[in-house]
């Protein structure tokens, strides 16, 4: 069992699980369930560990907003010194509300719209991680219309082999939709520094998510370094940044997290050889183990030879088990001592609504609380209103204090933008 799951801000105290100095039972009583709970201390610790191993080279961490885009989380990582990596205009809006400014922001994503390009140019962001020749040409036109010069880092698909728990999370292999194919990268890079309204400042890659081996980072960086040399030989005048993405693995059960010392031993020499500033985009690594989803048991029942534990959190709250077949460890907040094997399921009207199948857990009863571990990344951010279920609250704990950082949705929120009587138009 991975140590980071056990030590990332959550531990028993007085017979019940607590986040730092606050009992989860207290939060459930005050805020209700389901609720996502984040340890500020665990986020700080993860940031500090990664920042420290990269200290020998000029670098900056740009937190990947898609992992957890809550404003309080963005403000916390920014206070530690991080910039952000965004993938939409909505994330740009969130980042700016959280206090980040243009130079703090890099913009990734394979399908940026013209509106998003204009908004990011107006914000003065640090880099557009451009993923195709078509995007580059559109960015050049839009920047010209605005009488600006767009700062570009070319996102290259290094076409390296990546082993992740699910193929949906691999983004740097040949044939993936992300980035410029490696064989086309030199030509697109040359175009980027010759177009009148773009300026090529760097190269970027992102190989995947939940990557535990350092080999793909080494292989990908070597391919980027070859391209750096080729672009310099072709006359690229302003290369400044080498962005190697994120994807660092955390622990959900018994798998290995990324070995930061091995990661640094791989990354640092190559970053130094490039003579460029290193950008790294951690998302899950900073927040994944720092959060739990707290849920209350509603019912126990048997059927067809199976035991079911039915909770008030469903797949609309935590999609990962259904979408990725992902494992999340489940702990009873106040263990009863006995054990049972059961399917842990939610109230959503889908057979795919489960957190765990055939899992050995504490012998819980209705009213008991369960903590679904490692839910700080891609939990609330992927949640929905499916079955017209209001989204959960979010809470942050810092030492012996806690605060609601996202209020629980109410029924009125579900229909706020709808109308029973539409205003009809004719063509």
Q: How far apart lie the N and C ends?
A: 62 Å
| Count of DSSP-assigned helices | 13
The share of residues in helices is 25-40%
Shape: globular
Structural class assignment: alpha/beta
Q: What's the total number of strands?
A: 21
Count up the domains. 2
Oligomerization category of the chains in this entry? single chain
CATH topology of the largest domain: TIM Barrel
Instruction: Name the CATH superfamily classification of the largest domain.
Output: Alanine racemase
Indicate the CATH class of the largest domain.
Answer: Alpha Beta
Biggest pleated sheet: 9 strands, mixed
State Rg: 23 Å
Low confidence ranges: 1-6, 166-170
> If you average the pLDDT, what whole number results?
92
